[in-house]
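[recover] target loaded
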């Protein structure tokens, strides 16, 4: 099992290793934590404060599927082949992107610790976390393109997955607060941005 002391080291070893960067390889490396690890990797790019132009929507679709399987209590990850073929983890984590991910993970690991670990073993905790991840991911996916409003909900997902991996309830609470703030901000500003765009289009007509 990974811990807050060795997760980033294990992930770095996996990223820089010679094995194929497939989902199967990731699952065999991280075992029961693989659901959270895969979601963390998929949502890391949307969590960066950079406009993505919608290119990360496939990651968000896959994240929702994985989280739904978590809610259903599945222990073995399943993805449709047309989606799994599109996930190129080697390209996603190669070069500077992988280095940046490891750097940020290590910063959070230094700040986190195994706090109130019983929360993660409580009945229904896995399902609840899965539902929260789905909610934040859907909010990120529905954010207007190029607005940057997908950043906070995506960051909430990434931090929540990290909290699950290192079993830090305080970090999980912070993740939920950040993600919720992102959802509320997306609802408010997203509505305003959409209104301005529609008004601009009508004005041009």
């Amino acid at each position: 099992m990974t811990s807050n002391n060795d997760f980033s080291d294990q992930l770095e070893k996996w990223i820089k290793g010679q094995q194929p960067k497939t989902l199967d390889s990731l699952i065999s490396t991280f075992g029961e934590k693989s659901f959270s690890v895969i979601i963390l990797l998929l949502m890391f790019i949307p969590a960066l404060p950079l406009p993505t132009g919608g290119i990360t929507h496939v990651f968000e679709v896959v994240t929702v599927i994985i989280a739904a399987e978590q809610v259903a209590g599945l222990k073995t990850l399943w993805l449709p082949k047309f989606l799994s073929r599109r996930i190129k983890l080697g390209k996603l984590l190669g070069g500077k992107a992988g280095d940046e991910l490891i750097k940020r993970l290590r910063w959070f690991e230094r700040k986190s610790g195994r706090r109130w670990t019983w929360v993660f073993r409580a009945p229904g905790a896995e399902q609840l976390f899965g539902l929260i991840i789905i909610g934040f991911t859907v909010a990120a996916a529905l954010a207007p393109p190029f607005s940057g409003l997908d950043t906070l909900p995506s960051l909430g997902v990434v931090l929540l997955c990290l909290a699950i991996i290192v079993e830090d309830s305080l970090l999980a609470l912070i993740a939920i607060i950040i993600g919720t703030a992102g959802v509320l901000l997306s609802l408010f500003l997203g509505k305003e941005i959409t209104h301005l765009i529609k008004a601009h289009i009508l004005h041009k007509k």
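[recover] notes: The chain has ten helices and no strands.
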